[in-house]
Amino acid sequence: MKQPRHWTNPRSAIRQRYQGCRILVVDDDPLNQEVAQVQLEAVGLVVDAAADGAEAVAMARETCYALILMDMQMPKLGGLDATRQIRQLAGYAQTPILAMTANVFVEDKAHCLEAGMNDFLMKPYAPEVLFALVLQWLNQKPAAGSALPRNPVAS
Question: Taking each helix axis from N to C terminus, what angle separates 10-18 and 127-138, rounded to the nearest 10 degrees?
Fold first, then answer.
């Protein structure tokens, strides 16, 4: 049996294993959206962006995402409520949803986890921290019947 390869460079690992996977970045700040999108696209991921939680829920209804990066505080529908709604959609029970926020208090992290988010990325973040966290969650084995796509998406 072949042993799994140990990745010391998360950028290379994402490019090798998950190129073409579709990611959703949800943030009401256009600059934050653009920075995350450029970084993730540079490693071969396909990135869609939503400006608020309501848009994210609508996009998740239409498209299967391998991972979602979700800001906490946004107009119309915040990240916590958007996460709760996305978790109710078919195929999203096991999809990694990562909080991407400047809210750094312990209770903020607890609220994210209670809402159904899997992990927490503190803004501002170093690109390598983003890549390591994305790789960690894309590497998670999905539960049986999960919609976590492993193959490249069609353009």
Answer: 40
